[in-house]
Amino acid sequence: MSNILIVHAHPEPKSLTSALKDLAVDTLTAQGHTVRVSDLYQSGWKAVADRGDFIEQGRPDRLSYVAESRHAFASGTQSPDIDAEQRKLLWADAVLLSFPMWWFGMPAILKGWVDRVFAYGFAYGVGVHGGERWGDRYGEGVLSGRRAMLTVTIGGREPHYGARGVNGRLDDLLWPIQHGVLFYPGLEVVPPFAVYQSDRLADTEWPAVADAYKRRIAGLFNDRPIAFRTQNGGHYDGQQVLKPGLGASESGTRIHLVQPGDPEEVLDGPVPDRIALGAR
To answer: What residues does the Flavodoxin-like fold domain cover (predicted)?
Structure first.
């Protein structure tokens, strides 16, 4: 059995988002997994990244958050709440981020969790940097070997988030989180579970949503992850630009997904057994 961390960001315990979090806890526990929840609102998580994140500063005269993050992580002088969340991530075999979509992204408190917990030396700034190698990121890193999934409640209608929808494709809106936050330090990301018109969900509709979510939870370790290209897998040149001939059948962020027609000579072995973003 596995260890699961749920990072939950909703201020109302009786919300649909919180109900899905509780359902995830019950479902995963019933399967024999060990579950821990970081409930950011309930714990009063400090969302602002500032001097208070460091027990001692390397340069107290002027704050460079990146430099101080590097110093604090290396010297063991991070704020205790940051250290505790990093330990949870290292303990986990899978991470679920549970949140409502607010203004096309995650709530500020969850962004603040990322800003503070994903420290230099922990989630970025790791690995060899030199020549054509830009460190261990995008498929490599400290959190490699773990899985992640977003559980997102959305007030808008599903067609608004389709390929031609007025709000933009959901896959693109979630790209900074799924590719930039989760895949960057090595997590394998399975497609998100999204509930649309979440503020108008009738009681009679809940059983169908709950059943669908249970099925997704059951497949957390078996569903194929999103087919993000790895940084150091031969797809990019020395400037980290996608090589010619790759991604020609797609546009926008989707060029950075492995395509079935990609020349195999640039890949490390056969095309990964992954599904494209949003193909479900």
So the answer is: 3-213
